[in-house]
Structure formats: structure tokens, C-alpha cells
């Protein structure tokens, strides 16, 4: 089993963790110095003397890139062992790292998450950030995960190609991993670990505004595309209904136009699918989903507007709100799945 530690401007806690890992088990340890600079060379030199492999970025490139650098290196070793990712700031206890390693051996094709329970004294920004991300992830995917931001994660060796292909250079990489896991054929398993925050988590390099924005960006972009399409849909719905007094024609005509706009925005800007082959693959699935959503849309609106006599605009707002989550989940899972776990594809470089 290889322990991979991305590290930026570490302190002596990194050396303490290495000593404990070496004492507990003679595992391979790979550390990625993510552009820490000359002031930290002494710490990385000490880690190298303890038997660790040190990979160095000339400048800070972000945690996601550091992890992919490590995955790429481990992949070239042609080892069959799994990989455990841990942070360098003392928040992950050696005993918990070993527990995750044991589960990786028993559960291939799973992402093993060291799940903090957030009991005791937890810094306010950490508690709030984890709660917000957990709720947004559940809303987006329909899956509940207790700790979406944990840096303690375990992977079987056959997942390395996929791990190298996931987009994201900073902290958003770890969220993208969770968002794409199921479509790539991997399950998520949480293992409870100790919650450790040292000195109010001052050593964290997470930037609350910039990195939070990057983590939530896929959801923000999808919501923006949906809002623009919805405005177009609402306008056309009211216009066609005013001209024809035919609800079915208004719903179908408005949805055809807005779905074309929504498909283009999601393919280009949300799920980053482009090129003729991606269009041929995703377009039939997208418009099959449109037919399903349209059927549900009309059924719900008919029940609300024609039977319950709810005003048309309110009926539309309620219907779209109900179908928003289904649309996002379906597009991520079936239309733009990024199924990079397929063994038939050329291995991806990091």
C-alpha cells in the first residue's frame, strides 16, 4: 500500500506523521511538494532521509494537481497496491490511515472515505463549510455523504487512470471525484475516523471564497444554464398560450426551444463535452431525457393548472422546481457521464 501526501508549506507535523507511519508499518510514502519554496526544503529533505519519495512542483499548482502528480508517478511504478491519500497537517491519525488501507484491500472499485464525525470543538468555518457542501452534494446527486471534504481517501490500484483524468487543479478536484464516481462505476464507502483540528485549523490552505466557488462551480453553472433556459421557457410558454389558448402546444413548443438552448449550454460550459463524437453520443440521450421531462412537465402542470386551478405561472414554477434535481442528476449520470473507467480507453496521463 502506498501513502500519498500532497504538501504545501508543511511544518514538523509532517515529519511526525512519517515517523508514526514508518513505525506502524513499512509502507511506501510518496510526498508531493506543491511549490513550497526554499524555506521548506529542510522538511522535505528530512522526509527523504526517512525513506519517502519526494516529487516537487516548481510553483504552487493546487491540491488537485499535486494528487494527480502523485497518482501518475505511482501508476508508472506498475505496482498492484492500493493508494491512500492523507493530508500533511496532522489531521489524519496513523491508526485511521491504516484502517482505510485495510478497507481498500477488502473493497476494490470503491472510494474509501475517512469520514469525520465533527464532534467536539470544530472551528466554525470548518463546520459551516462541511455542512454546506454536504447539503449541496446531497441536493445535486441525491446521495448523502457525511464528510464530502475529507482528504483521507483510499483507492484500489486499477482506479489510477480514472483519478488522473478527473478535471480540477485545486480543492474542487476532490468534489469532482465524488460527482463523477458513480458514473465511472465506483462506489463510495465511508469509514468513521477521528476529527482532529489543530490550532483552529490555521494550517489549512483552503481559501474560503475562491476555493468554495471552485468546488460549487459545476452546480452554479448548471443552475445558471437552467435559469436562462427557464426564462426562455416561461416567456415562450406564456406567449404561445396567449396566442393559441392550447396548453399542450404551449408546453411542447416552449420546451423544444428552451431544451435546444439548455443542451448547448450544458454541453459546452457545464459538462465540458465538445466535438462531433461527443455530440453524437450525448444528443440522443439528452433529447430522450427531454421527452421524459416534457411528459412529466405536462402531467404535473395539467394536474396543477387544469384540475387544481393553480395559476399557470405558479404551476410552471412548482413543476420546474420539482424537475430540476431530476434533470441535473440524469444529465450527469446518463447524458454526460465521463465514463473514464472503461478499460477499452487509452490510459490517461496526468
From TrEMBL:
Stretches assigned to the GtrA/DPMS transmembrane domain: 221-335
Ranges annotated as spanning the membrane: 238-258, 286-304, 310-329
Taxonomic source organism: Paenibacillus terricola
Its membrane topology: Multi-pass membrane protein
The UniProt record lists the keyword Transmembrane: yes
PANTHER family registered for this protein in UniProt: SLR5056 PROTEIN, UNDECAPRENYL-PHOSPHATE 4-DEOXY-4-FORMAMIDO-L-ARABINOSE TRANSFERASE-RELATED
UniProt cross-references to InterPro entries, sorted A to Z: Glyco_trans_2-like (IPR001173), Glycosyltransferase_2 (IPR050256), GtrA_DPMS_TM (IPR007267), Nucleotide-diphossugar_trans (IPR029044)
Compartment(s) of residence: Membrane
Principal location: membrane
Domain Glycosyltransferase 2-like: 2-158
Protein name, UniProt field: Bifunctional glycosyltransferase family 2/GtrA family protein
Keyword terms: Membrane, Transmembrane, Transmembrane helix
Amino acid at each position: 500500500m502506498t501513502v500519498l501526501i500532497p504538501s504545501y508549506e508543511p511544518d514538523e507535523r509532517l515529519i511526525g506523521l512519517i515517523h508514526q507511519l514508518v513505525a506502524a508499518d513499512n509502507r511506501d510514502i510518496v510526498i508531493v511538494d506543491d511549490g513550497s519554496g526554499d524555506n521548506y526544503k529542510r522538511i522535505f529533505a528530512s522526509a527523504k532521509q526517512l525513506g519517502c519519495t519526494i516529487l516537487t512542483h516548481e510553483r504552487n499548482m493546487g491540491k488537485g494537481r499535486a494528487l494527480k502528480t502523485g497518482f501518475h508517478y505511482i501508476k508508472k511504478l506498475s505496482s498492484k497496491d492500493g493508494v491512500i491519500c492523507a493530508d500533511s497537517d496532522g489531521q489524519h491519525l496513523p491508526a485511521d490511515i491504516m484502517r482505510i488501507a485495510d478497507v481498500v484491500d477488502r473493497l476494490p472499485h470503491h472510494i474509501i472515505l475517512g469520514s469525520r464525525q465533527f464532534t467536539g470543538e470544530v472551528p466554525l468555518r470548518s463546520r459551516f463549510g462541511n455542512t454546506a457542501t454536504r447539503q449541496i452534494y446531497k441536493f445535486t446527486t441525491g446521495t448523502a455523504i457525511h464528510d464530502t471534504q475529507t482528504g483521507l481517501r483510499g483507492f484500489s490500484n486499477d482506479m489510477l487512470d480514472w483519478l488522473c483524468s478527473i478535471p480540477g487543479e485545486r480543492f474542487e478536484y476532490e468534489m469532482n471525484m465524488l460527482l463523477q464516481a458513480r458514473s465511472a462505476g465506483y462506489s463510495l464507502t465511508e469509514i468513521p475516523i477521528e476529527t482532529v483540528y489543530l490550532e483552529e485549523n490555521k494550517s489549512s490552505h483552503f481559501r474560503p471564497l475562491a476555493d468554495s466557488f471552485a468546488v460549487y462551480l459545476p452546480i452554479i453553472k448548471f443552475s445558471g444554464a437552467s435559469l436562462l433556459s427557464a426564462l426562455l421557457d416561461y416567456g415562450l410558454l406564456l406567449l404561445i398560450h396567449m396566442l393559441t389558448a392550447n396548453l399542450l402546444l404551449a408546453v411542447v413548443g416552449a420546451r423544444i426551444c428552451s431544451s435546444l438552448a439548455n443542451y448547448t449550454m450544458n454541453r459546452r460550459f457545464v459538462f465540458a463535452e465538445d466535438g462531433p463524437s461527443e455530440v453524437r453520443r450525448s444528443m440522443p440521450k439528452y433529447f430522450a431525457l427531454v421527452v421524459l421531462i416534457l411528459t412529466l412537465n405536462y402531467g404535473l402542470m395539467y394536474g396543477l393548472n387544469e384540475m387544481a386551478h393553480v395559476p399557470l405561472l405558479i404551476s410552471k414554477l412548482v413543476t420546474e422546481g420539482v424537475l430540476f434535481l431530476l434533470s441535473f442528476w440524469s444529465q450527469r449520470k446518463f447524458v454526460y457521464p465521463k465514463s473514464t473507467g472503461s478499460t477499452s480507453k487509452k490510459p490517461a496521463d496526468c
